[in-house]
Amino acid sequence: MDPGLTVTPAGNAALERLRQWPGEHSVAVGLSGGVDSSLTAALLVEAGWRVEGLTLWLMSGKGSCCAEGLVDAAAICEQLGIAHHVVDTRETFQKEIVQRLVEGYRHGITPLPCSQCNRSVKFGPMLDWAMHERDLPRIATGHYARIRHGGSDGRHQLLRGLDTHKDQSYFLYDLPQQVLGRIVFPLGELTKPDTRKEAARHGLRTASKPESQDLCLAEHHGSMRAFLDTYLPPRQGEIVLADGTVLGEHDGIEHFTIGQRRGLGVAWREPLHVIRLDAAMNRVVVAPRADAGRSSCEVGAVNWVSVDPPAHAVDVEVQVRYRSLPVAARLTPQTAQDDDSQRGRPYRCRLDFAEEQFSITPGQAAVFYRGDVVLGGGLISRSDRP
Length: 386
Description:
The protein is about 30% helix and about 30% strand. By secondary structure, the chain is α/β, with parallel strands linked by helices. Strands 12-15-14-13-16-17 form a 6-stranded antiparallel barrel. Strands 3-2-1-4-7 form a 5-stranded parallel β-sheet, with helices on both faces. Strands 9-8-11-10 form a 4-stranded mixed β-sheet, with no helix packed on it.
């Protein structure tokens, strides 16, 4: 540690929480090679926990979560004097994330791989490995989120991170209770500046490492377009208005997202936005922003992470994108459909927004909140049409 730097108030509070944590103080820390996961490991070590580092090998080649990340993660473990393990999950990542992502884009939706990755590739498998291979009953990561363990109803509750600019609870809605109960988020009540200061105090090599700004697949391939072009051949089609008027052509609906305005390659008397991707007709449908609002949407594959599934309609706050603000909506449970039941997600719902929303995108997550508590979330399957 740097003797010239003292622990920050937030860092000191985090250490006290970790020291007073109930149960066995043994944990596997998921290390990506970034500053957040590095500090997570450092704080746990400083708090006296038995700590081992675990890095998932998701892809070969460049990318912050791959080759470069592995090197930094190994160096952090060496600095902290803890064991470092690398688990090869490339096959699982290819099947659960890459293939699902490609199929989604092929069928005109814009998938959200991060929440699926957290459930299918990261948290559950990491916990299984930690418990069975290393006899470690918990896992910890550098996510900015909080967990309230074992409330009056016995359920563990997922909460927003204290830093509203870094809160990552949106990506964690799909975690099951049995995993949530064994997770530690040491950074949940820190801000990003606190993290940087604490990392500098520990002298971590990642203290000033830049943050990753893109999806790991985009970083790995150079861009999202390059990733998609690797798997999907060009499919020329039409760019049309909602009434069918043809304005231009495209080389693949996968290169467009709902709400997109720039880069459409068409001219019109007013700015146009993508409002629908029609996979059956291979069309990109565009309209002026005034016609792009949606008053409701249907959500499938719902996971009720912190509460029991509601039997009746409830009022919630909804976040329909990671960076969007929560908005008021009425959530009405619906009867399950076969596709969701087969995925082990029997819950569906309808959301009616208090005000029309822009860029409601099939494939993205709608996450339900009540204050800081994440009630649950699911994948937008469709929205109403103007």
